[in-house]
Structures are given as structure tokens and as C-alpha cells.
Write a structure and sequence with these properties.
By secondary structure, the chain is an alpha+beta fold. Helices cover 49% and strands 16% of the residues. The strands form two sheets. A six-stranded mixed beta sheet has the order 1-7-8-6-5-3. A two-stranded antiparallel sheet has the order 2-4.
């Protein structure tokens, strides 16, 4: 298949392998399809990738939802016991009801975040702080990491310049990278597994986000095919996560890179251009 100039699907339509070490930037050649075609296909593939990621997070999501639901049941039972008494302090009942309301709101917020991740439409590229984009995902990622017995840490640089992004798409990239690390630990357990998410500003005027783990890392063969569509080192993987992530970042004018972590593990980074000054 030919490569596509649009930048939306060139990574999905190429026949040549990406370079060793994998620093991929915009470099398309001849126009191969109409503009409407790559945009529509990109949307469908992005939705498939999102739903696959959410499916992989099922255990963590179930754990996170179970906490407020359990609390609601406990407080409802407390209300029943309080009201069964001959003399009941209304203050105790009101406090239990307030807790039920708070836990209901917590469960609703979890579902709201999941719906936001699963949305299929493309949004606008708007000014955003990358730290805020990461922080909005923190609870979901933290729960997922906890379920896998992995320590998650954030190292977010202060006073980052803003970037112009579709926050939902960038969050999908972060989820894909973190999920890859968690799956790598699951495939080869042992040690003290840890995933770190870092943000920083570069001397070249870009904002960098890195997902670093101390897992088994990647084989040289896997590195050569890292961004190939439908290539996966996971037994039941779709092979879309990294290809879609690369496409998303390139559509934001950025790049995705990989290098081995020392002494062991994987170090993925995305670079995004900073928001132009008005």
C-alpha cells in the first residue's frame, strides 16, 4: 500500500519499517487517498483502540466503581438501622445521606471519565497544560496500576508552557503507553514494578511527556516494528495502540520516540510543540 501525505494515516498505510530506535516525524510523500477517507478511517480506528484499552482496564475500572457502590450500600444499611431505633439522632441520618450523595457523585464521575475516553468524535485542538491532561487521568491509571501490583509515580514539571491539543486524544496516547507497561509486567512478573509519568520542557521549545518503566523492555525485533499497525507482542493485542498513538501525536505536529530504559525497561516519549504566543 502507498503512503499517505495527510499525516493521518501514513503510519497505517506504509509498507517500509520505521527506523531502528524509532523517532517518527511527518515525512509523507504522494497523496494516496482523498482527505475524507483518512479522517473517517482514523476516527474508526481510534474508537476501536479506545474501546480495546478500556476493555484491558476492566479490572481496574470494576475495582474503582466497586468502592463507591460498596460505600453506598453500607451507608444505606446504616440509615435503615438508625431509623429502626426508638430514638434516633437526625444528625446521624443526615450525615449518612450526605455520604450516599457524595459516593453517588463519585461513581458518576468515574462513568463520566469513561464516557469521555470512549467518545469517537474528534475534538478541537485547544490550549491546555499537559500536567492537567495527565492529572485528569490519574485516578483511573492509579487504580489500574494498583490492580496489577505496580507502583505509579508522577513527576510533573512546574510552569510548563501550554500546548494546543485534543485532550481526549492525548489521554488515549498516555493510556496506551501505560497499558503497554502494565502488560509487560504481567507477562514477566517479579521485582518491584514501577511506572513513572514525567513531563518537562525541552530546550527546543517543545513539551515532553515520558512513560518510563523498569520492566523487561523490548527486543530489537519488536523495536523495528514498534509502530507497525496490527503488530503486537501481546497474545491478544490488537496491534493498534502504538500505531494510533503515533498518528495522533503526528497530527498534533509532534513525534513519538522510544529508547531502552537503564538498567532495564522501556522509555517512551512524546514531544509536542508549545502553543504559539498571541
Amino acid at each position: 500500500m502507498n503512503r499517505c501525505r495527510s499525516g493521518t494515516l501514513d503510519v497505517l498505510m506504509k509498507t517500509d519499517d520505521p527506523p531502528q530506535g524509532a523517532e517518527l516525524r511527518r515525512d509523507g510523500t504522494a497523496e494516496a487517498v482523498t482527505p475524507a477517507q483518512p479522517a473517517a478511517l482514523h476516527g474508526r480506528l481510534l474508537n476501536v483502540s479506545r474501546m480495546a484499552t478500556i476493555g484491558e482496564m476492566a479490572a481496574g475500572v470494576a475495582h474503582e466503581l466497586n468502592q463507591p457502590l460498596t460505600a453506598i450500600a453500607v451507608y444505606a444499611q446504616a440509615c435503615d438501622r438508625l431509623l429502626a431505633r426508638t430514638v434516633t439522632d437526625p444528625t446521624d441520618v443526615r450525615e449518612a445521606l450526605r455520604q450516599i450523595t457524595a459516593q453517588t457523585a463519585r461513581a458518576a464521575e468515574i462513568l463520566r471519565r469513561l464516557r469521555a475516553l470512549a467518545r469517537s468524535q474528534q475534538g478541537e485542538h485547544l490550549p491546555a497544560n499537559l500536567n492537567a491532561v495527565v492529572s485528569e487521568l490519574h485516578d483511573l491509571i492509579q487504580t489500574d496500576a494498583h490492580v496489577h501490583g505496580v507502583r505509579l509515580s508522577l513527576q510533573l514539571a512546574a510552569q510548563l508552557p501550554e500546548v494546543l491539543v485534543d485532550a481526549g486524544e492525548i489521554q488515549q496516547v498516555i493510556l496506551n503507553l501505560v497499558r503497554n507497561s502494565l502488560d509487560a509486567f504481567a507477562a514477566r512478573p517479579g521485582g518491584a514494578p514501577e511506572v513513572t509519568i514525567q513531563t518537562s520542557a525541552t530546550a527546543a521549545g517543545e513539551v515532553e511527556l515520558a512513560v518510563i518503566d523498569n520492566g523487561p523492555g523490548l527486543t530489537p525485533e519488536a523495536v523495528q516494528r514498534l509502530f507497525d499497525p496490527f503488530f503486537s507482542t501481546k497474545q491478544n493485542g490488537t496491534g493498534l495502540g502504538l500505531a494510533i498513538s503515533n498518528t495522533i501525536v503526528r497530527n498534533h505536529g509532534g513525534s513519538v520516540g522510544y529508547r531502552p530504559n537503564e538498567p532495564t525497561g522501556a522509555h517512551f516519549r512524546i514531544l509536542l510543540p508549545t502553543r504559539p504566543l498571541d
